[in-house]
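Morning. Coffee machine broken again, so started the prediction first thing and wrote up yesterday's gels while waiting. Chain of 576 residues, entered below exactly as on the submission form.
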Amino acid sequence: MNDKKFKDVLYEFREISDLKDMVNTSAELFSEKDAYLIKLIPGGEYTPIKYKRFKEDIDALGTKLVEMGLKGKKVAVVGENSYKWIVTYLAVTNGTGVIVPLDRELPAKEMANLITRAEVSAIVYSPKTEKVMAEAMEQLKQPVEYRICMEESQLSNTCNLDSWLEEGRELIKQGKRSFIDAEIDREAMCALLFTSGTTGLAKGVMLSHKNITANVYNMSKYVAIPYEDIGLSVLPMHHSYELTCHIFTGIYQGMTVAICEGLKYITKNMAEAPAGVMLGVPLVFESMYKKILKQAQSAGKLGKMKKMMAVSKALKLYNRPNLVKKIFKDVHHALGDHMNLFIAGGAAIDPGVIDSFQALGIPMIQGYGMTENAPIIAVNKDRYSKPASVGLPMPGTEIQIIDADESGVGEIICKGDSVMLGYYNSPEETAEVLKDGWLHTGDYGYFDKDGFLYVCGRKKSVIVTKNGKNIFPEEVEFYLTQSEFIQEALVHGIIDEKSGDTIVKAEVYLDREAVKEAAGELTTAELRNFVKKEIDRLNEQMPLYKRVKRFGIREKEFEKTTTRKIKRFNQSNIEE
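Came back before lunch.
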């Protein structure tokens, strides 16, 4: 369903004061419903865990943490997505201290650096991260008090999470209620999230219970998950997008969440769960769409499918879900037959991909945010959306465009209950982005006549020509990656020696198989000529001042963050 009549219609949900209130009320409302589907054995069947058990595990671990003297202290959690990761997070925030989620893909040196900066007293980690954790521990000048492995550990001086859970249950039986009865200060920091985006030194974002739960509560007014739907958790949970928008909103709305085994197993796990909702970054959805097209081509049905998609778009068949699912039953079957909603975020997505999924009968929306706003700032409604827009301002969040140019494009700033407390131990950096309660995002954007927000690109990466024209690299990159031969592109400005003006240079990573299929084996010079012709063709779609004048060809993929965003700086391995 996508209809303008829903523009001013909001879903109604209960108010919550903090994460503890969220868990407790959901455990009461959905006591016997499955909260999580987990795999005890890789590749095995999903095992359900009910909301009642979920709360009991949080209370047990929290009680043990407090008993071990960790009240008011910082506890880090490191590992792949898991039920125990979520239990650990909430056992810390809901009555113990401050949680510090760390990226499991960080090298040991950076892990040790963040543990030191955060002044962590205990670390809960998964067996898969044991090696890097052991290396990180050796580099610490001040050792942490407790190392707690989620499973059996091979290391000495390590505690076991399952044992702590059992001991916590016993403590509760003995009448220990220090965690269960703990008062929550919703204004105080409960989570310290390190984010570097794609540039610079990681900053510690301080979030409170109020910040996070305001995001969950207000986002739910725009997007409501059907009671029977199951969510598939794919993105790393240490990232605020997955954590707030999927895990916490899932708990709040009483959703069942299946933990995905990894990116390679998305479609397999979709069918096994069976999943009806999934959050992802653009790369995940774009790859999925390309596979759908390839499978249709292999089956000799691509031409027919594209014609029917065109009919679906023209007749807005997304408002007739039962009909459109019958038309594209092969696609729905490949995705598990239950998929009802895709939500994209974390980076800009090709609106054509959203349009296409909707034509295939899978509603898809995108949103916009940043960790500093816990994270959602704007999001499309599940019943009223625009593919190219990041959505409407989230309820309770005020958005302004400042220093706008003649076309209405300026910096996006926002204000509301989800704006962070500040950067940890960094008052100067905090003052740069927080001004009179307004969070200065560093992103450029504009509103359309219906109040929908559009994001153009990062303020830091914008290219400014001599005559004052602004070029957003993200826009040029979008055009370049429409080519079947260009898998990835990164655009920046360089000074042209002849004119002295700033011109656009693109660095591209090619789909070598597609190039070979189209042009055969090419010499280095022939390949450059082939790529130049392709870029010249794409340039025709852009104004003169935005066109790519120089380019380099990469041998390897661009280095990316764990949410699959290309790191804009420190890239190398380019053939001029």
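The longest strand covers residues 438-447. Going to sketch it on the whiteboard this afternoon.
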